[in-house]
């Protein structure tokens, strides 16, 4: 299964904004309070916010393609751009999203392999992420590929305080 990856830059901000909003809505809108969800969406997914993240030398976005069609994207953070750990030895997988119509085709495994390659080439020892405790499908996916829960942290959707499981994959064991 051949996927192509393109690192995003500032010129991709509008396409990234549309994809980010679309995949986040598909994944989480139905499970959240509409007012809180809208407030979060209007704050987290703006042109200015994404542009600042694209300009950050420690954050990386990649579009994922199948036959020249974008099917998803990934966001990685390292060093001080990580949301929690800020470990120079780790890389955060902050976002990994595939459009609904392309889910269930094992693309996630290929994307995760690319994330590992990026982390290894950056000489990182582990990858970590936060995943909503109610997102059992994603938790099972990460566990299947060797991630282990090591803690929790709060995550706010608007004013709704939710809990994310923190999960880690040691790259020396893969």
What are the SSEs and their pairings?
Layout: E1 4-7, H1 13-28, H2 34-44, H3 47-55, E2 59-66, E3 69-78, E4 90-98, H4 107-121, E5 126-132, H5 136-144, E6 148-157, E7 160-170
Parallel strand pairs: 4-5
Antiparallel strand pairs: 1-2, 2-3, 3-4, 5-7, 6-7
Give the tags.
single chain; 174 residues; alpha+beta; Aminopeptidase; seven-stranded mixed sheet; 5 helices; 34% helix; globular
Describe the protein in words.
This protein has helices spanning 13-28, 34-44, 47-55, 107-121, 136-144; strands at residues 4-7, 59-66, 69-78, 90-98, 126-132, 148-157, 160-170. Helices cover 34% and strands 34% of the residues. Helix 1 packs across helix 3. The longest helix has 16 residues, at 13-28. Strand 2 (59-66) and strand 3 form a beta hairpin. It contains five helices and seven strands. The mean pLDDT is 96. The radius of gyration is 15 Å and the shape is globular. It has one domain (4-125): Aminopeptidase (3-Layer(aba) Sandwich), CATH 3.40.630.30. A seven-stranded mixed β-sheet has the order 1-2-3-4-5-7-6, with helices on both faces. It is of the alpha+beta class and 174 residues long.
């Amino acid at each position: 299964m051949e996927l192509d990856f393109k690192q995003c830059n500032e010129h991709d901000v509008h396409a990234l904004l549309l994809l980010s909003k679309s995949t986040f809505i598909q994944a989480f809108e139905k499970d959240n309070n509409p007012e809180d969800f809208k407030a979060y969406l209007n704050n987290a997914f703006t042109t200015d916010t994404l542009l600042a993240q694209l300009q950050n030398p420690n954050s990386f976005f990649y579009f994922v393609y199948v036959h020249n069609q974008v099917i998803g994207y990934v966001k990685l953070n390292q060093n001080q751009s990580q949301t929690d750990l800020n470990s120079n030895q780790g890389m955060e997988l902050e976002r990994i999203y595939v459009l609904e119509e392309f889910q269930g085709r094992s693309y996630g495994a290929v994307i995760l392999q690319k994330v590992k390659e990026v982390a290894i080439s950056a000489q990182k020892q582990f990858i970590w992420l936060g995943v909503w405790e109610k997102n059992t499908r994603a938790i099972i996916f990460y566990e299947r590929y060797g991630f282990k829960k090591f803690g929790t942290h709060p995550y706010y959707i608007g004013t709704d305080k939710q809990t994310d499981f923190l999960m880690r994959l040691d790259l020396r064991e893969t």
